[in-house]
Amino acid sequence: MKKLFRVSPGKSRSPSIFSWQPEGNFLACSGNGIVTVYDRHGEITEEIPLSGKGTILALEWDKDGECLAILQDENGQIPIWNLSSKKVQQLETNLRDPTFLKWSKVGPQLAIGTQKGNLLIFNRSTKKKIPILAKHPRAITCGSWSKTNQLCLGSDDCTMTLSNESGDAIEQTDLKFPPYDLQFATQKEGSSHTRDLKENTVSINMGGKSLMLYNLDNPDNPVELSFEPEYGNIVGHCWFGDGFLLVGFSRGQVVALSTHTNEVSEEMWSKSVHSSSIYGVAYSSVLKRGATAGDGGVKIIDMSNDFKELKEEAISMDTSEDGRPHMIQWSPDGQILTVSTRSGFIYNFLAKMPTIHSHYGTNCSYLSSLREISFVDTLTKQRPVTISVGIEPTFCALGASHVAVGMNNRILFYQLSDTNLVNEQEYVGMVMDVRCNDRFAAVLSNSQVTLHLIEPVKGGGPQRKTFPDRDAGSLKKATCVALSDQFLIFGTEAGTVEFFFLNEWATLTGAELRHKTAITKIYPNSMGTRLVVVDAANEGFMFNPITSDFTPIPEFPTNSSNVLWDNSDKNIVMVYDGSMLHTYVYAPITIRGPMMMKLGPLEIAGDGSVSMQPQSFPLESGWVPILSHNGEITCQSSSGQLHTVTSPTYDHNDEKERKNRERQLLRFTQNLALLRLKEAWSAALVLNKSPYWLALANKAMQVMDIQMAVRVYRQIGDAGMVIGLESLKQYEDKNLLAGHIALLFMDYGMAQDLFLSSSRPLSALEMRRDLLHWDSALRLANTLAPEQVPDISVEFAQQLEFRGEFEASLKMYESALNFMDDLGNVLATDSQQSTCMCGIARCTLRLGDLRRGVRLARESDDKKLCRECAAILSDLKQFSEAASLFELGEQYEKAAEIYIKTKDFTQASKIIGRVTLPKLHSMFGKACEQAEKYVEAAAAYKRAHDMDAVIRLCLNNLGQLDRAFTLVRESGSSTGAAMVAKYCQEQNDFRGAIEFLLMANRSDEAFALAKNHVCMDVYTSVLGEKIGPDDAREVAHYYETQNELGEAGRYYSLCGQYNRALKLFLQCGDKQVDAAIEVVGKARNDMLTHMLIDFLMGETDGQPKDPDYVYRLYIALGNYTEAAKTAIIIAQQEQADGDYGRAHKILYQTIHELESKDSYVPQKLRKMFVILHSYQLVKKLAKRGDHEGTARLLLRVAKNISKFPKHQVRILISTIIECQKSGLKDSAYEWASFVCSNADYKKELEESKFKNKIQSIVRKGGANREEKAEEMTKCPISGDNIPCTELECKSTKDALPMCVCTGRHMELDDWCFCPISGLPALYSEYMKYLHAEAPNAIESVEGAVEEMARGGGEGGKELNRGKAMFRNMASKVVRALDPVKGAMVSSLDISRCSHEDALNYITKYNTFLSGKKNSNQNPNTTGGEGQVDFE
Predict the structure, then answer these.
(1) How many CB atoms neighbour CB 958 within 10 A?
(2) pLDDT tier, 1315 (very low <50, low <70, confident <90, very high otherwise)
């Protein structure tokens, strides 16, 4: 609370007492032997001198506030001061030691009590004194008058008496303790909330120990209220509300309790308000607040709000200087709280003021004290500017530079900058309202609006004008006024709102509003371009003077007292009804026109639909809103202070909570409700869920913000909506645009209304047509586009026909056909007329007029119509006409079906050739068969794909046996096969019968025939490898009985009896060794394996078999290690015998088999293959004239000459000769020396024709032994240059794959694989090899075509373009035998491979070589035993 003024004590600094005048305008205070009367602003009105020197005991005002009675200790004269005359009248009582003084509440009586218990009642009106002696035997200490003018007194003799206005005793009762205080009040009876206002109870503070409730209607049953001892003594009590008590205790406790008869003594609330002590309690019925004075100062309790302690209203007091509080009291109007102290100070605090305020933009002026106006900018919140005014104002108005304050008919204008008074005006009649802007003031008084300059300027143009300037009845009575920077706006009793343009000093008649009801209040926005209008019916509207839109405000409170426009959100309006604030958003442009929407919590469903529950929110009790800025509402409280509160609609503004997802959801929903779509977009980016995007898009379309809607739909990837909305951007007509948006929302009625009111009403017709709303479209077309009536009528007729409303459809077809314009021209086009005739034909048939319908169908020459009419006739069971129309409509199947069903074979035979449905052909075939037309029947059955019937006819009726056999074999029909088998048995053709019995899945019968007629070969040939185990066992047993052991073993193998099969194969000797190996490979049985090995090694018959059989056995068993060893042995033997080709073949097959199985390739095996293949390439290279390549390979072979025992000398001689030819003279000399020095070679050398040449090389070797350098090529692993025939990487020691065409190592850039052997080769060398080895290039066109087709080319297509082109292609196609297997290979089959494929092969090559299967080792680091040493 704000301190209003303070009364200082005299020199004695003794406790002072005070008393408020009943009207609350004057305060009487005691001090220094005088009584001082102050006005409510603290100014001294009168000082009343006293004749006595005793302490002032009491100050009492009479009921009218005219007289002040003063009670002094030991002074029998009572001074009575008159407020009007300012004179003192001495009342002589002739009483000694007066102790009590009290004026009646309703009469002129003054009661005076004494120390001895005597009583004097003085009637101020009659001047009569009534003495009552010995009213009490001891001192009268307290008392009170009731509203019925009864006097209740309390005395130290522990009694209470009740008397009438003359002092006659009515009641007397004894008390437990001397009374300290007593009060009249109304105690509620029962639980009813309606109560009698009669004061029926006296509450008595009995010595501070307890409270007695003395019911005047039931004096024999008083109620005593006792409290907890720890509360201390009762300091004071007050009645409040509907029969409730507020009690203060000496130890700081405050208790609120009910005195209702059924709730009496129940504590409603209890709290230790002060820490140690309370000295006084007071209650204001106006404010509904309690006040307690105690240690720490004064505490305020809101009795209407759950006894909430108002800590911001608490008053701190310095007890060390001023003394502790002594007495506390509210002024009668509740505006001032007065507290006196033991040191004689009297403090007055402003507890409530009139909530007088005004605002201009974000600036606010308010009554901060009774004669003080404060001005503050609520946005910057700087220190308020205070202006002291000369009156206690009842209203104020704020402008850009001035503030106006006034009361009654007087207004003072102050300059804000220097707080000086610049103007003072008086008006005719009471001022009802005043408004200011930067220059003008508009004052409403006496139903007139006076507009004048705030600071008059001499010669400055118009300075004053009165409105309204009409004289017609209610039009001349202004009811409300508003003022913006540009406009004066006022409302009248006639229901008009008029605008006066200040700059041109003229009334804007075009902006005038005419309403049917009187206007009571208007609230414009800061620009004056929109205003909220409240009429006499308490209904609210939003008026836009620019567009003349007058929009009702939904749920507008009937008791509205103020309307606020938010300074930041231009479309937000808040309405205050005295306790609640209602928030609205104004949408000037929506698909439904201008709208006002009351805001509240907004919920979003999963499909994006939005629902909002309009809600209002309460302000704190006593708070009145002044202005709003971005949802922050500035309010003035009853204490005069400013407070701010944030509207719940703007809770999302809390920056601290922005990262919280729930706050982001709140931010999204509230911004969406406030139509702040950009802010909602930012929140939606954080939430990023479909429902929120859809809600934002829907809201954007509702307010016709197409750009935002497109942005949202683009964000969620809805291309269709983006394209659709982009197309709407072209529309400038609001109604046209709104119509299209309503169409998107599927509100077709609204869309039609909007289209019709737009600049393009034809859009309504187009919409109805697109929606197939033909009845609505037809009505619109008759008005908007008559030329479309035929087309719409046709569409409508077709819809009616589809729904089965044939009669209405027929009328619509006929209407479309006959519709004419104003000139009598038929508007239907030829196509529409044709459609109408077809529709008429169909509907005519449906309605039963068959003759006309068929005629129209035949005349139309429309195949589709014929088919439709035929279907209708078929449904009507009119088969003959239906078949003929089906035939005209070229639906031969349906026509034929009807002809066949009606047995009209003549007509059926005419069209059966055009029928494709097998079912109908089958039906026709049966009919022909019955007529013994077997050829026609067979043809019909064939067309029906009923081959069994055709086979039956061929066997039984047509005698076409070969055809029957062929059909069975082609169709695979088991039924047909059974028929043919039966026929063959009847003809003793058992071989044929066996074949067809098997096809009929009757294998038992077939086997019996084969067995009985020695035709088992037919049986087995038909079954082939698909023979089942049981059948194979039977066949094997049969062959065994016939001593055909090889065949018996084969079928025992097929049925899984491998042991028996092997025995039978071995009995056959060498003939069935291959079959025996295959069986052992399949069986994987050790016993059978050893049995076969013993046989192959000659253990059983003493004759060892070819080792190749052992090799093949190991391969079949998957024992690749042993297979490799065996292959090496075989190859060595063959090589020793000089059969190098066979050795080469065995080695390649073994390597190929091991690599295909991802098995280890031994070093020796790979080395032998490389040497042998190098030897095989020698002749090919020599033939091509590549002497150096030949020499290099012969040198590789010569280093392993021991592997060629039969041809050592020949090979070495060839090596010497080729080295000599190719310039490898040092190598030639070394090998010539070797041959000549070796005695084992002497004989063969003597016989050689190169003897002399070799000896000559040896003799001349010392003279010239220059060795030609070998060509260097890149290593495929390291990339270093190495000799081209080197097969080992010098860096990693890994083996290098060899080219099968040249014997050189492979290169990454020239890598390919032989399509026959799968081994690597240099691509360029392979192509040279093919050209060199080919017997001749393919020169014929046919050969080129064959090769191109086989190679996957497009030769066949090119042939059609010209033989010349093919001859050119044929010259490029080369075929030759591949260098490994000797099979034919074409140049079309060869292509370069990638580096990746080459490197993978190198890795695999070295993995097989090293024997580390699935190794993760890098090919560049492979080594160890896998290295191949060719040196």
Answers:
(1) 16
(2) very high
The pair of three-digit structure tokens given for residue 1245, joined into one six-digit string: 């050398």
CB 442 within 8 A of CB 481: yes
pLDDT classification of 190: cutoffs 50, 70, 90 = low
Higher pLDDT: 825 or 301? It is 301
Q: Residue 374 and residue 419: Cα distance in Å, rounded?
A: 10
Q: For residue range 379-397, what is the model confidence (pLDDT) as tens digits?
A: 888 889 999 998 889 999 9
CB atoms within 10 A of CB 648: 17
Whole-angstrom distance, CA of residue 103 vs CA of residue 109 = 6
Number of H helices, E strands in the chain: 45, 69
Q: Kindly state the tokens that stand for 1162.
A: 């031994």
Question: How far is the C-alpha of 338 from the C-alpha of 328, rounded, in Å?
Answer: 6
Burial class of residue 520 (count of CB atoms within 10 Å of its CB; 0-12, 13-18, 19+): middle
Q: Which residues contact 1000 (CB under 8 A, 6 or more apart)?
A: 974, 975, 977, 978, 981
Neighbours of 1088 (CB within 10 A): 20
pLDDT at 4: 84
The span from the CA of 384 to the CA of 737, in Å, is 50
Q: What's the CA gap between 822 and 1293, in Å, rounded?
A: 105
Q: Distance between CA 57 and CA 73 in Å, rounded?
A: 6
Cα distance between residue 252 and residue 272, in whole Å? 5
Residues making up the chain, counted from first to last: 1431
Amino acid at 461: G
Question: Locate tokens 């030897």: which residue?
Answer: 1175
Residues 6+ apart with CB under 8 A from 330: 20, 282, 283, 284, 286, 287, 291, 336, 337, 338, 351
- Rounded-to-integer distance, Cα 66 and Cα 190, Å: 40
Residues ≥6 apart with Cβ < 8 Å to 730? none
Distance CA 546, CA 511 (A): 7
Query: What's the Cα-to-Cα distance from 1123 to each of 599, 1154, 1168, 1405, rounded to whole Å?
Result: 92, 9, 15, 19
Alpha helices by DSSP H, 1199-1285: 1208-1222, 1225-1237, 1242-1247, 1251-1260
793-846: pLDDT as tens digits: 888 888 888 888 888 888 888 888 888 777 778 778 888 888 888 888 888 888
Rg over CA atoms, the chain: 63
Q: How far apart are the first and last CA of the chain?
A: 115
Tokens matching residue 828 = 């239907």
What's the CA gap between 1190 and 1303, in Å, rounded?
9
Contact 898, 886 (CB under 8 A): yes
Q: Which two tokens stand for residue 1074?
A: 């291959």
Helices 677-687 + 690-702 axis angle, to 10: 170
* Span 692-713, pLDDT tens digits: 999 999 999 899 899 999 999 9
What's the rounded Cα separation, in Å, for the pair 572 and 81? 58
Average pLDDT over every residue of 1104-1122: 68
For the entire predicted model, the pTM comes to 0.56
Distance between CA atoms of 1241 and 1198, rounded to whole angstroms? 14
Residue (of 654, 597, 677, 699) closest to 666 by Cα position: 654
CA-to-CA separations, 1286 to 1056, 1173, 1303, in angstroms, rounded: 52, 15, 9
Alpha carbons 1398 and 76: distance in angstroms, whole number: 136
How far are the Cα atoms of 423, 425, 464, 934 from residue 457, in angstroms, in the given order?
A: 12, 15, 11, 129
> In this structure, how many other beta carbons lie within 10 angstroms of the beta carbon of residue 824?
6
Cα separation of 287 and 1067, whole Å?
Answer: 129
The Cα–Cα gap between 1170 and 1187 comes to 19
- 3-state class of 770 per DSSP? helix
**Contact (CB, 8 A) for 367 and 373:** yes
